[in-house]
């Protein structure tokens, strides 16, 4: 119970840490927006502070009192600062509050339930890296998980959630980001377009399938999107209006947290500050505010990139390896990563990008989500909760038509939106990479609904937002929440739920029991978060840790792996039917010859080395999972 109080108190007290500063230096800011923005920024700054604590000599668990101090200080400061009073909406506006409440409830259910296979990145690194850091006592480079080099201003909060509660405590922070995000959007929209439009802004944001689902997971894209989108909007608003000049530093702070939570934040920072500079140049005013905002942004984001230079020599490792290099990486691995990033969306043909597919890509965010999410994106598979939604795309179109010549800052905001979409199209077309536009589109929806020129326009926007929200709630409930509720209520145990929905769950239990010394090499399996013993992602594409190029047979492989401290090998065979048959034959005592084509392929060579070591007796079969004739996975041990 104490752990839950600490995590909940950290989230609840977060606005109080920054609210007095915002009130003093932010100019005219709606009270709800002030609370929301203060909550978002405070949580991001706590994650950033955790970086400095984790890099020092004192073990991370010894700093577990930090969120307690953050919670108590925030709550006391909030009480002393005369917190704003909210009144319940009436009439049709109550529907917006109802949707916000349902969104929070769905996110809370997701946070309290264990992760399943849909939470791919949650299990592979968002939760796994903080767990490894907590176990080691410090924030350090993990050589086999290159994601440990990513900016972790949001992920670092999971360290405290895991330390005090566990997995659900970590994910609870994302419920907090959703709450403060909706408050910030509501307050900004109310200040610009009135309270009725503000509720529809909240409805458009919370009604996006991707926002609704991810807010209950370990993914960090909703928080990152709020940092990027709201930061850009505040900065552009400050440059476009002298009365809002005090918003510039808040925009810079949030943009710094965007770059401090995900590399794509650098795109948001570059585009937002470029458009803002053009505004300042045109108006011959606001230059000092722009410089101050940029200084705040750099101060908040820079520690992550300085750390990367110290760790690898590349500030954005492992990206741009061809130009910036980076230890523990090479051109072949960079090519794997680049190739995988280009499988998302539409337009990539062979070695190039079909520029004429831009419209198709943008529209696809609404109607073809399978190409914008893992897995199976190249075939259009995936899952529909990865969509941004029809309402958001419709809002983008209407805003472009009706606000391009509207009042400031909307013309500049639209330039930012389309430049951001262009960068997304050229780099990696993953739907979650574009969530930085979600808050901006939500604010645009409020502006459109406040436009009294056309009742038809207002009716269209309300219908789109309401229809999208209803669809998203039903979709996320049927797809995810309906199976999570029995776990949250205790009707189904957490272990039973995970075992049914994560294929690696049973092998992970065996590995935790069997591996007493050494560590396990995981092949084609990245859900190491489920393990409580040392492990390594052993596929060649993840790191240069294992010298595959120098290994010519199973004996050399076994010798090298033992020298590196490996005691066990786990091979996930679910992705390759022919490999399943070969391993089944060896498990049943048959001999299989080397597949020379696979052996010459440096990405697949490991499988032949494992098979040879198994046939030579260097590896002993421990357990096969699934059909004995075609096992879905095998666990092996070095003799």
Topology:
Elements: H1 2-25, H2 31-55, H3 66-80, H4 94-112, H5 120-126, H6 128-136, H7 155-164, H8 167-193, H9 195-206, H10 209-214, H11 221-240, H12 248-259, H13 265-283, H14 287-312, H15 321-324, H16 331-341, E1 348-349, E2 352-353, H17 358-367, H18 390-402, H19 410-426, H20 438-450, H21 455-488, H22 494-501, H23 505-514, E3 519-523, E4 535-537, H24 554-563, E5 566-572, H25 577-587, H26 596-600, H27 605-615, E6 619-625, E7 633-638
Parallel strand pairs: 3-4, 3-5
Antiparallel strand pairs: 1-2, 5-7, 6-7
Helix pairs in contact: 1-2, 1-3, 1-7, 1-8, 2-8, 2-12, 4-8, 4-9, 4-21, 6-7, 7-8, 8-9, 8-11, 8-20, 9-20, 9-21, 11-12, 11-13, 11-19, 12-13, 12-14, 13-14, 13-19, 17-18, 18-20, 18-21, 20-21, 24-27, 25-27
Notes on the structure:
This protein has 639 residues and is mainly alpha-helical. It has two domains: 478 residues, no CATH class; 136 residues, no CATH class. Strand 1 and strand 2 form a beta hairpin. It is globular. The model has no long low-confidence stretch (mean pLDDT 93).
For this entry, give a set of tags:
single chain; 639 residues; five-stranded mixed beta sheet; 27 helices; 7 strands; globular
